[in-house]
Amino acid sequence: MSDFQDMQELLNDFLTEAGELLSSVDNKLVELERSPDDAKLLNDIFRGFHTIKGGAGFLSVHALVELCHLTENLFDQLRNGKMKVNPEVLDVILSSTSAVRDMFDVLSTQRQPAAADAQLLERLQAALRGEAVAVVVPKAADPVAELPTMAGAAVTAASAGHEPDWELLYNALLGLSAPAAPTVATPLMSAPPVAVSPVASLLAAVMPDTRQGRRRSDDPNAEVAQTGRRAGDNKAGTRETTVRIDTQRLDDVLNLSGQIGLAKNRLLCLRRDLHAGDHGVDTMRVLDETVNELDHLVGDLQSAAMRTRMQPIGRLFQKYPRLARDLARKLGKEIELELHGEETELDRSIIDELADPLVHLVRNAVDHGIETPEERRAAGKPEKCVVRLSAQQVGDRILIQVSEDGRGMRPELLRRKAVEKGLLSAEAAMGLDDAASLKLIFMPGFSTKDQLSDVSGRGVGMDVVKTNIQKLNGHIEIDSHPGKGTTFSITLPLTLAILPVLVVRQAQQPFAIPLSLVHEIVRLEPEQVQTVSGRAALTIRNEVLPVRSLAGMLGRETIEPPRFGVLMQSGVTRFVLAVDSFAGREDVIVKPLVDIKSEGVAGVTLASDGSVVLVLEMDALLSKEQTETRESLFGSVSALSKAA
Q1: What is this structure's pTM?
Q2: Does residue 162 form part of some domain?
Q3: How many CA atoms lie within 13 A of 80 on its CB side?
């Protein structure tokens, strides 16, 4: 392996481990605010920052070392009792951890970060001197950090608009001598002279310094997007491509692979015997046994391979206490974010995609759901609100909930806001029940805020949540009561790689339905189907359920009455899906429809006989059917009104 590849791996390992360590430090700082006299917490935080500083020093990232050193000194003062923990000191420390994370972002693009913001450094120095810490106003960082290497000179020339000096870069990579490099601009706070190691030279060559400070966008939505990327470990372009796997899980995969190899050898021998004309009972019996064994082994191997992708959701949850704390401080609210079920495991790809939706839900809870301390006192509630973020496995699905005991949502207010913003007609709003009214918050452009702020008011957050959850083959439900609080419940599959489905047939064409929605299969007898409020219904164990025809939901005509029904539950909606017949249960790999958007179709797969099967998205089909029903009803009401 080349030196360049070695350094790339060193840098990636540092960013992964230091990023996790920094997230842990952030959470412990939030916890420290609640327990300022906890000496163990302070020592843990000090050691975490010391470890980050040590790694940055090995990689010769001087701007990061300088910032970590100042912050570490502040931790040392706190843990030695020379200073007291208070919200202002924690604000400047958390600003420092944010700046460290910004530097990680720059390092992930293989560039040297610029020196930290001058105001932040001054605030750290003031805190160390025991002075009052001023409120910081975000300011762009000063440009160039020091690159005292010949590679830095080559990069400097390139950043000025000329070609880089490739000879200097080549010499830097090989550690050869070269003419003296031109003078480079001095950083905000000059680091002491250091001997440049081959490691530093190589890093400088592959990580050119940034010529423009990282400026906060004037667009308030940029803050949400940036927070989401951080919560997802830099999703945009630098997403982590490695996972930590328990070696026992790898051993399981290896053992199963060996057993499959033995079964393959037995099949080869049986094939030879069959070609030789041996069609005896014993040969056929052994063939059946071997095929059955291979079927079980392949299933076990599939499950074992899936387990290697499973990661505890706590690695994502730990990003949010800091987010909630910062937003609450900004809004003058008192909250505590509780985490539950952090050990619950989920496919790594789903964890990555959950980052943005959970950012919006946590921010929504703090901004919209929770009252101010004065409002909570007047309502007879504790001034501090507890926001609960939890995860648990329910069958073959994962349930994630964000709940709080805040002001709750008023359906009549949501209907009025939707009409005011032109998202819904007054007639359509009148026809919505309370449950449907709560779902109005998922409409693009919907917001209950009259004034635009840098936190909310644009009506994009909850739309993003619903869209992203649906992309993960999941669904989201709302339970809210005025004055008592709101709970958002997200249900997701354990993995996106393999989807258990029930394959049904409609007019001889196969369709796949996620098995997680299926409760039972019943035979539809014509005399058992009743008409309730003008729609077909079936009574199952004293429960009257609507019967929905798959042909009707797909916009097709029914040639013959359907013979079977599938008892399904999508969210809180229970119904019987009428189909012609079944092809059986299968575990399939769902492929998206590239450049084709068909409402109600999640993707396609191949059946065991090689035929193409459409995988249905039942939530979308139900929503489409309900919308068409409402439009038809309102059209009839309008026509009757005109006639009268």
Answers
A1: 0.63
A2: yes
A3: 8
Within 8 A by CB and 6+ apart from 469, the residues are: 357, 475, 476, 490, 492
Residue with tokens 């939901």: 553
- Residue 152 DSSP symbol: H
> Taking a C-beta distance cutoff of 8 angstroms, is the pair 152, 204 a contact?
yes
Residue pair 604/615 in contact (Cβ under 8 Å)? The answer is yes
Q: Under DSSP, is residue 151 helix (H, G, I), strand (E, B) or coil?
A: helix
Are 199 and 338 in the same domain?
A: no
CB 380 within 8 A of CB 328: no
For 58, the token pair is 């090995």
C-alpha 371/C-alpha 333 separation (Å) is 7
What string of DSSP letters covers 218-280?
SSTHHHHHHHHHHHTTSHHHH--------HHHHHHHHHHHHHHHHHHHHHHHHHHHHHTT---
Strands 385-394 and 397-404: antiparallel
The pair of structure tokens assigned to 295 is 């079927």
Q: Is the pLDDT of residue 633 over 60?
A: no
To 10 degrees, the CA torsion angle through 171, 173, 175, 178?
A: 20
State the CATH number of the domain containing residue 416: 3.30.565.10
Tokens 């409120």 locate to 135
Number of domains in the chain: 4
Q: Reply yes or no on whether the pLDDT at 512 is more than 60.
A: yes
CA distances from 338 to 58, 167, 390, 471, 504 (A): 36, 56, 8, 27, 43
Q: Which of 493, 510, 543 is the last residue of a domain?
A: 493
Q: What is the CATH number of the domain that holds 16?
A: 1.20.120.160
Is 258 part of a structural domain of the chain?
A: yes
The secondary structure of residue 507, as a DSSP letter, is T
In this structure, is residue 266 part of a structural domain?
yes
Closest CA to 154 of 115, 213, 191, 204: 204
Do residues 470 and 558 both lie within one domain?
no
How far, rounded to the nearest angstrom, does the alpha carbon of residue 62 sit from its chain's CA centroid? 32
Which three-class secondary structure state does DSSP give residue 313? coil
- pLDDT at residue 188, as a whole number: 28
The residues near 10 (Cβ < 8 Å, ≥ 6 apart) are: 59
Range of the domain at 436: 329-493
pLDDT tens profile 304-322: 888 888 889 988 898 888 8
Instruction: Look at residue 638 and tell me if it is in a domain.
Output: no
